[in-house]
């Protein structure tokens, strides 16, 4: 009797043939997301207009501050922090950088924007039971990092390209692992498979970076010319060349990690290596010798090839760990 009376009053309040009114908590929880999306779209519009170029000279700075503030808010909300505090702090720092207009401050703001965008692209993903869902999450992560690339370039830093790429990659990986340590229940959620995945991913990352650096510094002219011929052919015939670390490690790690997270928490530790994909995307616009169209094609090629590699990794993982398979869990 006591439960039926409130139900009848709710039906009378909604009226005949009308759906029940949504709860206030649902509507109030939706408004922050709508406001966040509006800020991101407005900031992106400012950055795109500055690239055309259209509008005043302050547009790229305004767009970058809006993006870094929104991304800091989202990253804090996703990791259980204080989104309003960190979002306002990021906006205040960005406004201070624009007001002081110092090269060192602009470069530091650009580095932090790139790192925040790369980490947010990783932690914004959700578990995916199927490969199609994992591929969708990779696209979302790359799009978040791509908007971060616009904001990174919007601060107009003064950089050394190779150093900037290494610093942003290291900061993005460190930030991703710190966040994953919290979301993945620390070392207790790692397990044997997580340890193996982290060791293999770390080894692959170290080999890729070490090989590229050794080749750049100590490679023989014949070997370097042979490799560069392949890069030149790809850029001439296909329009771009995919970034190796994004293609070989970052995107496959995101595919496998999001797929694994639907079954095991260790997937978070695999997803951390997804920063090897989002960081190169977030700093992709810093090379003035590469056009915007070539940057877009390079990211797209790396994403497509990485998805193919990730599909193979997921199938092998299911083959070895599916129930009923000999040697499986």
Characterise this structure.
By secondary structure, the chain is mainly α. It has a domain at 159-323. 76% of the residues lie in helices and 0% in strands. It has helices at residues 4-14, 24-51, 59-78, 83-100, 103-123, 131-154, 161-183, 191-218, 221-237, 244-261, 267-271, 275-282, 292-321. Helix 3 packs antiparallel against helix 4 (83-100), helix 6 (131-154) packs parallel to helix 12 and helix 6 runs antiparallel to helix 13. The longest helix has 30 residues, at 292-321.
Q: Spell the H/E element sequence.
A: HHHHHHHHHHHHH
Strand composition percent: under 5%
What summary fits the major beta sheet? Answer: none
- From the N-terminal CA to the C-terminal CA, the straight-line distance is 51 Å
Number of H/I helices: 13
Coarse structural class = mainly alpha
Kindly report the average pLDDT value: 81
Low-confidence stretches: 6-26, 325-329
* Count of individual beta strands: 0
Gross morphology:
globular
Which terms would index this structure?
0% strand, disordered C terminus, mainly alpha, 329 residues
């Amino acid at each position: 009797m006591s439960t039926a009376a409130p139900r009848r009053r709710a039906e009378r309040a909604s009226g005949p043939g009308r759906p029940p009114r949504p709860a206030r908590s649902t509507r109030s929880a939706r408004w922050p997301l709508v406001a966040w999306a509006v800020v991101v779209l407005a900031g992106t519009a400012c950055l795109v207009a500055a690239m055309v170029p259209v509008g005043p000279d302050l547009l790229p700075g305004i767009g970058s501050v809006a993006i870094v503030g929104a991304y800091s808010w989202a990253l804090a909300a996703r990791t259980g922090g204080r989104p309003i505090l960190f979002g306002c702090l990021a906006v205040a720092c960005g406004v201070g950088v624009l007001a002081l207009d110092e090269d060192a401050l602009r470069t530091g703001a650009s580095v932090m924007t790139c790192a925040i965008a790369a980490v947010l692209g990783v932690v914004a993903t959700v578990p995916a039971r199927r490969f199609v869902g994992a591929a969708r999450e990779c696209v979302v992560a790359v799009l978040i990092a791509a908007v971060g690339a616009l904001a990174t370039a919007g601060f107009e830093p003064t950089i050394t390209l190779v150093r900037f790429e290494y610093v942003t990659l290291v900061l993005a990986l460190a930030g991703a692992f710190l966040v994953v340590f919290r979301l993945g229940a620390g070392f207790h959620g790692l397990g044997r498979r997580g340890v193996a995945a982290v060791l293999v991913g770390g080894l692959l990352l170290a080999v890729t970076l070490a090989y590229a650096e050794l080749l750049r510094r100590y490679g023989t002219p014949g070997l370097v010319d042979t490799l560069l011929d392949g890069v030149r052919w790809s850029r001439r015939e296909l329009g771009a060349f995919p970034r190796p670390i994004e293609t070989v490690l970052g995107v496959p790690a995101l595919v496998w990690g999001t797929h694994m997270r639907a079954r095991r928490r260790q997937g978070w530790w695999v997803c951390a290596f997804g920063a090897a994909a989002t960081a190169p995307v977030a700093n992709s616009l810093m090379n003035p010798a590469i056009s915007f169209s070539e940057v877009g094609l390079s990211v797209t090629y790396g994403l497509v090839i990485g998805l193919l590699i990730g599909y193979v990794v997921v199938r092998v993982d299911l083959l070895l760990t599916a129930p009923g398979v000999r040697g499986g869990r």
